[in-house]
Amino acid sequence: QVQLVESGGGLVQAGGSLRLSCAASGSIFHINAMGWYRQPPGKQRELVATVTSGGSTNYADSVQGRFTISRDNAKNTVFLQMTSLHPEDTAVYYCTANIKRNGGDYSGQYWGQGTQVTVSS
User: Fold this and answer.
1) E-strand stretches of the chain
2) Model pLDDT, residue 37
3) Rounded Cα distance, 39 and 1, in Å
4) Which of 35, 40, 75, 120 has its CA 20 to 30 A from that of 102?
5) Longest C-alpha distance within the chain, in Å?
6) Mean predicted lDDT score pLDDT of the chain
């Protein structure tokens, strides 16, 4: 009953910017931390950034200073503003959220289907 849907991926030149969005919908009581992971071609999935419900953020060293994570709690949405993009940022980007469902007894980790980001040199 809970779904995460990413949007905003696409093709951009090196040095450019892109903004990703991920909206959670369904039977949601509340959302704890939200975040973004990515999986480059032929590589393992890696953490990009996280944001707690209180607004505390963490970033991977590789994106520190270039990416900004934020969230709109009223819309159950998390964003990733990416600037100064490098070809190495090319990956499928996945959003994730720790969510307690309406009537649920526990929180679970939910994942989106991913959105492709391609940075050309």
Assistant:
1) 2-7, 10-13, 18-26, 28-39, 46-51, 57-59, 67-72, 77-82, 91-101, 107-111, 115-120
2) 98
3) 26
4) 35
5) 49
6) 97
